[in-house]
Specification:
By secondary structure, the protein is mainly β. The chain is built from two helices and nine strands, in the order αββββββαβββ. The protein is 9% helix and 46% strand. A six-stranded antiparallel beta sheet has the order 1-2-9-8-5-6. A three-stranded antiparallel beta sheet has the order 3-4-7, with helices on one face. It is globular and about 40 Å long.
Length: 162
């Protein structure tokens, strides 16, 4: 369940599209999984998200979710950063509020620290637990460098079918 929650919010680092789309800061994007992603990062943040693809179209318990993120890293990211994750269910109940080591967090997407500047692609898949309650989920993910500067920020809303 923990890996799945990380995947949902990491897919937070996202937008469904057939080709990369440049996200506008603070703009909501509705995609065909009935998810809304908002890029809440600052223009000075080193990670620029170009696109996020999530499939299948209908997210269902007990079925896999596939997440692909494409972006550009303006500067290298060293060891020692953190990722702050908040995930709420039914717009009220916090089911996750935790800080993770940045390098451990990105290992789930087959990446490792340090990250070099340049193009970055992250792919992840995980089965949605059968025990995950159907309904609406909202969350945020904010990554910070080893010196506390923001790397990127994304918020998400999505619905899991029964």
């Amino acid at each position: 369940m923990m890996i799945f929650l990380l995947a949902l919010v990491a897919a937070a680092s996202s937008l469904i599209s057939a080709s990369p789309v440049y996200l506008e800061k603070g703009k909501n994007y509705l995609n065909n999984t009935n998810s809304i992603w908002t890029d809440c990062s600052k223009s000075s943040d080193p990670l620029v998200i170009y696109s996020i693809n999530v499939s299948p179209v209908t997210l269902q318990r007990g079925q896999p979710i596939y997440i692909s993120v494409v972006g550009y890293l303006k500067e290298p990211i060293n060891d020692g950063g953190t990722v702050s994750v908040v995930l709420r269910y039914a717009n009220a109940m916090n089911i996750l509020r935790k800080k993770y080591d940045f390098c451990t967090f990105i290992e789930a997407a087959q990446l490792s620290c340090p990250l070099e500047d340049g193009s970055i692609s992250m792919n992840y898949s995980e089965e949605i637990p059968s025990s995950a309650p159907p309904g609406q989920y909202k969350g945020s993910i904010v990554a910070y460098s080893d010196n506390g500067d923001e790397i990127t920020c994304v918020t998400i809303q999505l619905t899991i079918s029964a």
